[in-house]
Specification:
mainly beta, 123 residues
């Protein structure tokens, strides 16, 4: 089970930190990811992290602004979002799966999804 939280309304240039609490299984061999969906659009990959090893991967649109991290003790993945832009407005989902790293950018690679948290960035 994945429980996302931390969304809200923020002005452009501001910051938010999303959290994804994972439970119900061991995620040692999994990749955890944040994937977003803007109104009327398809789900789009944002960032991913290997639970074991901590390798990270980012979409070009967020590289340098967003940071994905994990806390093994808390079984939680975070997405620190800085320098937010109106185009970052979306529902953000956390997802997990035993993903081949070269396909981590593909939302279809993930088997388990949280309920999503809404991020709204005003201009």
């Amino acid at each position: 089970q994945l429980q996302a939280s931390g969304g809200g309304l923020v002005q452009a240039g501001g910051s938010l930190r999303l959290s994804c609490a994972a439970s119900g299984r061991t995620f040692g061999s999994y990749t955890l990811a944040w994937i977003r969906q803007a109104p009327g659009k398809e789900r789009v990959f944002v960032a991913a992290i290997r639970w074991s090893g901590g390798n990270t991967y980012y979409a070009d649109s967020v590289k340098g602004r967003f940071t994905i991290s994990r806390d093994n003790a808390k079984n939680t993945v975070y997405l620190q979002m800085n320098s937010l832009k109106p185009e970052d407005t979306a529902v953000y989902y956390c997802a997990a799966g035993r993903v081949i790293w070269s396909t981590a950018y593909d939302p279809n690679s993930y088997d388990y999804w949280g309920q999503g948290t809404l991020v709204t960035v005003s201009s």
